[in-house]
Amino acid sequence: MLSGVDYLVVIVYLIGIMLLGLYFRKFIHSSKDYFLAGRALPFWAIGMSIVVSDIGAQDFVGVSGQAYRYGIAVGNFDWIGSVPAMLLAAFIFIPYFWKAGLYTIPEYLGRRYNDYVRTLASVTWIIFFAFNLGIIFWASAKLLNTLMGWPYWQSIIITAVVVGVYTFCGGLTAVVLTDVIQMVIMFVGGAVIVVLGLYRVGGWDGLVDKITAQGISFSDYFELIQPANTKTPFPWTGILFGLTFVMANAYMIGNQAIVQRCLAAKSEWHAKASMLWGAFLKMFIPVLVLFPGLIAIALYPDLKDGDNAFPLLVKELLPPGWGLVGLMFAALLAGLMSSIDSMLNSTATLWTKDIYEKYIRKDASDRHYLIVGRLATIVLLIFGVITSPISQYFEGIYIAIQTFLSFFQGPVFSVLMLGIFWRRTTQWGGLFGLLGGITVSALLYAFKGYLFEIEDPFLYVSWWSFLAGLIIATVVSLFTQPHPEERLYGLVYRLAERKQNLA
Amino acid sequence: MLKAIRYILNFEWLAGVSTGAAKNVFLVLFVLIGILVLLIPNDYIFQGVKKRKWWLNLKLWALGDLAFIFITYYIF
Fold this sequence. Notes:
Shape of chain B: elongated
Radius of gyration of chain B: 19 Å
Oligomer: heterodimer
Number of strands of chain A: 0
Largest sheet of chain B: none
Radius of gyration of chain A: 22 Å
Structural class of chain B: mainly alpha
């Protein structure tokens, strides 16, 4: 339970973040300011925002729970599952998206392929974000309930109100710049628990000794590379093919919540640099979210649910009366709020630019679209709150999110990759590749009990659905009419430059 | 038929690869990415920069990231 000084820390944090967010309201004069922060953001703020948006309170709980069950192999998601993809994004995709002046990734797909592809991708992301909001809300409620005994609905509504106010008022500027503060708080809070935990178990050597002494089944807890026939969800084949080649790229390149920040950079260099800076910061995340799970194995080896590991450490390790529990609590709230604000703003952008402006009201004033974006933020928030209880049907929160992601990510990345690297890809190739890939995803997932051997095959599903999308798009493209080359300038990698060189 | 599909989908055809060899695959991948980064033209790297300075060279940033992750995978 929180003491008086802890409550003070949390209240100061909440009020500070809300005031900071509200301060940026005065910079919002147009829809471009609201959705793209007026394209004036520096690389350091974007990089920090990418990291903190990607890592939320649910990761403290979910990843430490996974680490408790499977060891450090779960760290692959933040190391090889981020760095190569962020490099590819920085040097190939982001510069093209930025130069094209895009608001959304589906907008690129619309220009490169056609409006069907754009709409399908946009609707897919809107649905995913909307339900993911519910998952994140539920994860936080579970955490607050374990830590403080707060009723689930009370936690969800308090979080929703705080985030809703500053995201509604300050748009992407408020989201990114509050994320900077959130990241610092999250890193400091996370580091406190890791340092105290390592001290308790006797440092790194003590941690390794205590875990490996627990039996043969713990011998591979410090191996990032797991055998292909492992029963965990992280065989090296899945990590390489599913995570490194597909899901990581799809997440860092095709995820609106991540890429939208880079589109708001003040120059092309800042857009590229933001991804590289973010990749550097991302490599420290496993220390914060994975180590607590390992420390919990050493201290409490008999937990029934790994997701309880982190809340238990907070209760047991942090001394009361120093404000450290409050700081940790603020760090968790920071992770939670930064994820929610990103999804709210990105989904509002997708809805306003790809659906409303395209199909519902085409030639309205800019102020009209600004109001629509703000209203969409509120509607989504309410939807996320209402749907949050469904996530309790999944065993592990982190796996639940990855499962939803794997459904769509592979096919979307297949058409993005073909779109930027192969000028011969046609509009129908893109559309059928996307539809076919999603269908394969759904079928594989529906029959996963018959087809796959590992516990949760989301990495394999993403790889095979990506491959299906790639093959279908290629075959259909070869039999359909390509776009005129001039239309593809600025949308296909170095096409214009190659043409100039030939001339 | 189902057995053949499972054999392919579950990557059983790679089951004979040891984790040591798999680790080398990951390490080689990082080196390859580093080489590709070095091949990017400097003009492209510095797009949007008013005055070129060595610390603004994003190739160095990328190589730093790769060095960090290479060491992590080498150790674990």
